[in-house]
């Protein structure tokens, strides 16, 4: 099942072990290796012809999940099955969400669409609804970055967060919106 | 955002934002048991002849069945809680309480004259049983689901349903100390019905609470 070389998979155990002990460099190396392994996994699992689906989005979702749930790996257990179980879970999740949307090549039906400028408020309304569905920091961050168009640095200063935290909150906020509104 | 940027952010923030801690599942189960006990004592309490009843096998076997159900469910949950841990092979443990209950029913049918079967099966506490077990079980289920949501179950609905079995086993063990219907015929009908309420609630709640 494992598409990556076995030495890389074994290296993961060591890297993650050092990472949980507080080694930031090891953690970065772990995530980099994990991203490569997971990317190959995602590319194999996902249908080749997937308009509107970006493998890199799935890779990032998996990495965020791995990060958020890194405490569920216990030292001494092999990392690879744990990593693949998370990857599979997220892939199924992404696949289901996609399955509920209908993707049509826009060129084929371009004439049918109304001129978007004729319905000026539809997009603004949707964006407002999407942002309003978020809570707390995610909402503040997504609204600052996407609606007000502020920079990450500016937003971090305004909200008294680190830039990294702003990026992560932004990413999660968008993921939450995709989850909520992708289903409709 | 580029993936390597995300990696840099996650790695850079990893020290400031400590990883969530895992509570050992045994501790979670013990706490859930305590919550069940608290609700039970608050609402019902053991029946007056509790100690004397311990000498009757019909009374005791209720605790064996419910306790084994709770133990089997908790063993499966401990596996389901984290990615890539074994749980399938533990499903067989659910057969143990079922077999004990089946044997108890067989013994009851063999030892009690036929015209008493219906009365024993219907008992006098059917409605209480259907209300009390879910009532005691809900807070227990809530504790289990909360603990599981800090973990990473990759089968949210199934995990919720098994948590329903665990909470039902715990709640039923306490309720058994209160209920005066000790016949296995009563237990075999009403306890599983009450259990199904918690299993369904667990499956629905798990599908929502345990996604990540």
From TrEMBL, chain A:
Spans traversing the lipid bilayer: none
Domain RNA polymerase sigma-70 region stretches: 37-101
Family, similarity comment: Belongs to the sigma-70 factor family. ECF subfamily.
Keyword Transcription regulation: yes
Entry keyword Ribonucleoprotein: no
The protein's name: Sigma-70 family RNA polymerase sigma factor
Residue ranges constituting the RNA polymerase sigma factor 70 region 4 type domain according to the UniProt record: 127-176
Highest taxon in the source lineage: Bacteria
InterPro entries per record: RNA_pol_sigma-70-like, RNA_pol_sigma-70_dom, RNA_pol_sigma70_r2, RNA_pol_sigma70_r4_t2, RNA_pol_sigma_r2, RNA_pol_sigma_r3/r4-like, WH-like_DNA-bd_sf
Pfam families xrefs: Sigma70_r2, Sigma70_r4_2
Keywords in alphabetical order: DNA-binding, Sigma factor, Transcription, Transcription regulation
TrEMBL record, chain B:
Alphabetically ordered keywords of this record: Membrane, Transmembrane, Transmembrane helix
Segments crossing the lipid bilayer: 21-43, 63-81, 93-110, 130-148, 160-177, 189-210
Name used for this protein in its record: DUF1109 family protein
Pfam short name (any one): NrsF
UniProt keyword annotation of Ribonucleoprotein present: no
